[in-house]
Amino acid sequence: MSSSAPTVVFTALADDTRWKILTRLGEAPASASALARELPVSRQAIVKHLEVLRGAGLVEAEHQGREVVHRAIGGRLSDVARELEEIAAAWDRRLARIKRLAEGPTDPN
Fold it and tell me: How confident is the model at residue 36 (pLDDT cuts 50, 70, 90)?
């Protein structure tokens, strides 16, 4: 991911409605109209949320007749998961160093 990509992705994922949309699209592709029927959000709001998710590279759209069907991009989600694992591992290392420093050297006397 580029240096600005994590910020865009995490900002997109931080919104509860977008998270619900992405989770739903992970189960099966859907149109904005179908998502609006399933979620307590207007179609117009769904479309705006989908634009943010597409901009973050988490969702792709495909025209099927008169409808636009959206689906989650699995590879991109895997990239995000790896990024989160790297962040978690870095924090684990930092916290282990802090613990060692806080406990100090052991005095045998």
Answer: very high
